[in-house]
Amino acid sequence: RLHLVTWNVGTASPPPDVTSLLQLNSLGPTMDMYVIGLQEVNSRITNFLSDLAFDDPWSIFFMTVLSPLGYIKLSSVRMQGLLLLVFVKHVHLPFIRDVRTHYIRTGLYGYWGNKGGVTVRMSLYGHTICFMNCHLPAHMENTEQRLDDFEKILEMQFEEESIPSTLDHDVLFWFGDLNFRIADYGIHFVRESINNKRYNLLWEKDQLNMAKKKEAFLQDFIEGPLQFKPTYKFDLYSDVYDTSEKKRKPAWTDRILWRVKNLCQHASKEGEFSEEEQTISVTLNNYISHMSYGISDHKPVTGTFGLELKPLLLDPLVTLNPEGEWSAEHDVLISYSAVPEFPSSAWDWIGLFKVSFRHANDYVTYAWVEDDEFSSNKDSKQVYMSAAEIPDTGGEFLLGYYSNNMQSIVGISQPFQIQPNRTLIDKDLTQEETSWMQKPDNLASHDEF
């Protein structure tokens, strides 16, 4: 289950609550993956430079919401105002490989990153998936420029030769502030149609719908029905369309589309397509806007999808476990084994993580798989971790094997308990008691005042 968000946040700070945006109160099964594409994240020079060194406020905000629920930030990519975040449940980490990011500028002839696309791609259970967050040129008359820019973004190549081109991925999701407008109709007709919920009257004049009928490179993209109000342009903190002097005509600028490669190949052939051949299918369960969010002049749009995958990968590359009972009072051992074809590196490491860790670098401590090796045989290896590195308070943790070649965690243990260091805890309690007993002597009595 995949939940995809696109939102032009208009340089605003995160809202107080995103429960409905992320459907966290949904009665159905929880999501396996969240993909969040933002446009117009505050990118003033001072903000941008500080965000390069640290996570930006939006990334921190979503990590704070999702990490306690068992999601980690798998990847992120930012190009000035464009930000793309991918979060996944721990259980899927060993089956996600070859995570790569890319971005391409199209604004001001490619010199300025205010428009363009940011991309995250991966192999998920052996299937190639690509997510592309775009911000295309604005204004009614720039349809051709929007199409030209998107075609340029589609032609982007990843640096590694082994990574397929964008259109060669099994599934490609395309979303963002695509800025397509409603042509021909006047503002009064558009607003009346919206007020009467007769959105279908506007669909045939939506510039993206019109382009999909003419442009070959768009025809394989699928979109759910636009059964929600146009998401642009609203007065801030309201559900009232633009009352400024410009009175912008409402439009469905914020969109989510997808493309399944197998279906495209099948469409170009004759004959029926057997279900046995189809190893991946995408089902749209929900395509809606969220009117309650008013921090910008756009309303966020979400798509909830079911991805049905025939797993091409069934076993994790690395299996790892804590040896024996772990305690903060003594050194410990980690045992792990890798499949024969695993491309290990001297730069691989095993991290000790809190169960609610936020991303791959959010470890408590780590051990190098080569430098800290304790023993080795043909079936498994053991790595040593010093007691000095383990939190004295103990708690619930898990182990993750980070592959330098694959730039991702490729093995993860079940959660386990670390016993606290009783010696230090007893010592702290003794110190507290001592200081408490000494306090009355240090305080002046009422008589002395």
From TrEMBL:
Annotated Inositol polyphosphate-related phosphatase domain residues: 1-313
UniProt similarity note: Belongs to the inositol 1,4,5-trisphosphate 5-phosphatase type II family.
Coiled-coil blocks: none
Gene3D superfamilies: 2.60.40.2840, Endonuclease/exonuclease/phosphatase
CDD domains reported for this sequence: INPP5c_INPP5J-like (cd09094)
TM annotation in the entry: none
Protein name per UniProt: INP5K phosphatase
Gene Ontology terms for molecular function: inositol bisphosphate phosphatase activity; phosphatidylinositol-3,4,5-trisphosphate 5-phosphatase activity; phosphatidylinositol-4,5-bisphosphate 5-phosphatase activity
BP GO annotations: negative regulation of glycogen biosynthetic process; negative regulation of insulin receptor signaling pathway; negative regulation of phosphatidylinositol 3-kinase/protein kinase B signal transduction; phosphatidylinositol dephosphorylation
CC annotations in GO: endoplasmic reticulum; plasma membrane; ruffle
Top-level taxon in the UniProt lineage: Eukaryota
Alphabetized Pfam families for the sequence: Exo_endo_phos2, SKICH
